[in-house]
Amino acid sequence: METKCEVKHGLEGVAVAISSISYVDGEKGELIYRGFSIEDLVEYSNFEETAYLIWFGNLPNENELDFINAMLTKKRELPKNIIRLMYLFPKNAHPMEVLRSVVSVLGMYSSDNNSTFEDAINLTAKIPTIIAYWYRIKNNFSLIHPNEDLKHSENFLYMMFGDIPQEKELFDKSLILHMEQGMNASTFASTVTASTLSDVYSIITTALGTLKGQLHGGANEKVLMMLEEIRTIDYVEKYVNDLILKRKKIMGFGHRIYKTFDPRAKILKKWLNEIKEEIRYYKIALKVEEVVLKNFKGKKIYPNVDFYSGILYNYFNIPKDFFTTIFAMARIVGWTAHAMEYCKNNRIFRPRSIYNGPKNLDYKKIKEVKING
Ligand SMILES: CC(C)(COP(=O)(O)OP(=O)(O)OC[C@H]1O[C@@H](n2cnc3c(N)ncnc32)[C@H](O)[C@@H]1OP(=O)(O)O)[C@@H](O)C(=O)NCCC(=O)NCCS
């Protein structure tokens, strides 16, 4: 007889772990990492310090920060054979497909010392290089190799474009916003892989495959596609109303946990407001937000992080199909922190499904089955 259990569609309301990494208050619209509000972290911190905080649970002192900087800096370059391999990929491959594939291949190049943290640092250091190299290979540009004098995020912008924009700090801070967010879909998927005691490369390959979906990290690219399609403010109302009539999802809106404005979207919107020059698609986005909020009054559907992040990345000249890879470049910190935390008190994930198919069917050999007609 089957044990009785209840299906929680989409695991809504189910907790699968106890964690001290981040806290989300979906009603108030609050997000904290290890006790610090993201508002404070984007104000005072940077990628390296926040990564240290998320991994180790406390802000680094100077020695600890030097250690993390040195580790991240020296592991940036990719093995030559992987670079050669990347030149063989079809140029129209999606950057998330490339990232997922290269991370998986990197697993073959890892040392056998089985240190999850070293592998986590190795991938965190190399992901920006994979993204930037693919951007340059895809566009037939020569590669720009990592520069050890530059910080994590500015080195990424340098490897992409050959120069570093004035607003480099804004880009760095946007990574902080994307670093961690509790037991979201990709973190859960990667924690499942971690719970089987698999390796970090497999854990992150799982996470990347999950993040790519448009209901998760892939939404940022879809938002920009929508804004491009809308093109003018006058068309917003009709466009959004048509989507609602057809019961289609509006990308960049809604969240399983946030039932008010996503605090990350709020911060991104504030930054976009503060940039003096006109930002492409921003006015259209504001109008989309207005129309969506009007239509969904009372339904608690608000902009999420992916609604405004694409507009910022577009401002940095990052092509839209690369947006989700930028998300991944930051979220690797959260994924690896959760994998390490969960494995300290590991139990393999093994939920159930409730069978509703037939039973006791008579097996007929293929020769005995009569073909109709
Ligand atoms: C994020 C998301 C997947 C959360 O999903 P969820 O918690 O399972 O919520 P549901 O999809 O069940 O939505 C609940 C209700 O709100 C509606 N809804 C939620 N998000 C919506 C959106 N973006 N556009 C239109 N309707 C939306 C659903 O249609 C559903 O309505 P119903 O009760 O009348 O059927 C969902 O809001 C979504 O698909 N958003 C768009 C993709 C996106 O921006 N993803 C990035 C998330 S950070």
CATH topology of the largest domain: Citrate Synthase, domain 1
> In CATH, what is the class of the largest domain?
Mainly Alpha
Total discrete domains: 2
Low-confidence stretches: none
Beta fraction: under 5%
Classified in CATH, the superfamily of the largest domain is: Citrate Synthase, domain 1
Major beta sheet, specifics?
A: 3 strands, antiparallel
Helix tally equals 16
Spatial sequence of strands, sheet with the most strands:
1-2-3
Description:
By secondary structure, the chain is mainly alpha-helical. The protein has two domains: about 10-215 and about 320-345, Orthogonal Bundle (Citrate Synthase, domain 1), CATH 1.10.580.10; about 220-315, Cytochrome p450-Terp, domain 2 (Orthogonal Bundle). It is about 55% helix and about 5% strand. It is built from 16 helices and three strands. The chain has a three-stranded antiparallel sheet. Strand 1 and strand 2 (about 30-35) form a beta hairpin. It starts with about 20 loop residues before the first strand and ends in a 29-residue tail after the last helix. Coenzyme A binds near residues 10, 249 and 254.
